[in-house]
Specification:
Blueprint lengths: L6 E11 L2 E12 L3 E5 L6 H9 L6 E6 L2 E5 L2 E2 L8 E4 L11 H11 L4 H14 L15 H13 L5 E5 L7 H18 L2 E5 L11 E7 L2 E3 L13
Parallel strand pairs: 3-9, 3-10, 7-8, 8-9
Antiparallel strand pairs: 1-2, 1-4, 4-5, 5-6, 10-11
Length: 235
């Protein structure tokens, strides 16, 4: 199922865990190149929705499309996680502690199907873009919080995804590092044109070009701000 629509479309997604509806008919749209910041109380289902989009969580109803391709159709996953063109930045980075910076990206690029002869140049490009050039030999334990999150971002972008999912990526960072990473994220969205769904508990992270706030409560999306015009900035 393909057409000319660009971006993410979620309709009527329902997830039940332990006999309780964690998501109860979620509807959401994220346009191509847009960043939607999803907020809500702890336990409201924000991370569950990200797992649905990544293909890691089963649903009992609903549909998900990305650029017109059906990822979830009639309550069933139609595309495997590794085939979804979806990148995920985990809370805390989720880095592999036994892999250096260079090996982390080489491993990700290998599983993305990038030929061995092209992986070195692609890895250097990614490290330049997240300002980690020269860090190739470093291990995750030696990276600062901001450096670890930038490496996690580079790993997520290694597949050149159409949709980037961010699960509380700025939580442990101070205000200056948060601003720096948000600016970097805007620049990378401009470069690659991907859509981004950014889960956080902090509404202050709604800043940057083409950014909207959507609130999740009682398993449904509510209080969505209007989609800004291209180039507009949400205060």
């Amino acid at each position: 199922m393909t057409d000319e629509r660009k971006g993410l479309t979620v309709r009527g997604v329902r997830v039940e865990l332990g006999g309780r509806a964690v998501l109860d008919g979620v509807d959401l749209d994220v346009r191509d190149g847009e960043r939607v910041v999803l907020v809500g109380r702890s336990g409201s289902g924000k991370s569950t929705l990200l797992r649905v989009l990544a293909g890691f969580q089963e649903v009992s109803a609903g549909s998900v499309e990305l650029d017109g391709e059906g990822l979830v159709v009639d309550g069933r996953h139609a595309v495997r996680p590794e085939r979804r063109s979806v990148g995920l930045v985990f809370q805390g980075g989720g880095l592999w502690p036994h892999m250096s910076v260079a090996k982390t990206l080489d491993f990700a690029l290998h599983h993305a199907g990038v030929p061995r002869g092209e992986r070195g140049a692609r890895s250097r490009e990614l490290l330049d873009q997240v300002e980690l050039a020269g860090y190739e030999a470093r291990m995750p334990a030696t990276l600062s919080g901001g450096e670890a999150q930038r490496l996690s971002l580079a790993r997520a972008l290694s597949t050149r995804p159409r949709l980037l999912l961010l699960d509380e990526p700025l939580g442990p960072l101070d205000a200056e590092l948060r601003d720096s990473l948000l600016t970097m994220l805007d620049e990378l969205r401009h470069t690659y044109g991907f859509a981004a769904l950014h889960v956080t508990h902090d509404p202050d992270e709604v800043r940057g070009e083409r950014t909207r706030l959507v609130r999740l409560a009682d398993g449904k999306t509510v209080d969505a701000t209007p989609t800004p015009t291209d180039g507009a900035t949400t205060p």
